[in-house]
Amino acid sequence: MENTIKALERKGYKVTVFSNGGEAVQYLRNALNGLTIGFGGSQTLTELDLRHILAENNTVYVPDFPAEGETFSGSALKAFNANVFLLSANAISDDGDIINIDGTGNRLAGSLFGHDKVIYIVGRNKFGGTLEEAIRRARNIAGPKNALRLRCKTPCAMAVVKDLEMKFREEYHTDGPIDQLEWQSFLAKLDSDNLNTHCYDCKSPNRICGSLLIHMKKPYGMDAEVVIIDEDLGF
Length: 235
Ligand code: SF4
Prior knowledge:
Layout (H helix, E strand, L loop, with lengths): L1 H9 L3 E5 L2 H11 L4 E4 L3 H5 L2 H4 L5 E3 L10 H9 L3 E4 L3 E2 L5 E5 L3 H7 L4 E7 L7 H19 L5 H18 L7 H9 L3 H4 L15 E5 L7 E7 L6
Parallel strand pairs: 1-9, 2-3, 2-4, 4-7, 7-9
Antiparallel strand pairs: 5-6, 6-8
Helix pairs in contact: 7-8
The chain binds iron/sulfur cluster.
């Protein structure tokens, strides 16, 4: 990790490291006040409950959880015009390349341009490997696990969902309808190495992977920070 931190700093990012999510949340709560904050879709940000915590002192726009009466697109446009943009990464290589895959593109667009500052909040499970290995991780683990989280009928999700549902029903002792919060909590606990997820580069109408972005360095014209948390978070 030391070498990756140095690589990220050489690419122009500020890097802060925390031993757990609570410390990182406290740091962000202190650093961000009186601002507009846009969110890119992220299981990590959801797990840290940042959309509620940062809303105490800021105006937040979270397209995955739009305000009452607002659409995903309306919230995403406001997020794109916010002072600060928050997201995670699907993978970060040993050389500090930041990789994200997106279906709609609002998350990728928000990380590229238009903000005073972009902050990546990334758990330790996203780091490691060459650029090629990091892309493979993003495509074969993050994509399918997100498809599973969203219960998409895509080949990557369908290939494992039957087996997972059986394990879920065993663990939660249920043969009735599946509670979505329990399902997401069950998925979050799964060991990615044993899940055997795979991307089929599908043609599904429900495909969630449309674009892949590699930040080879920090974009010009805005600050960017990588907040590293020494815990497994998100996909
Ligand atoms: S391209 Fe299709 S198969 Fe591959 S991860 Fe995305 S949704 Fe799944």
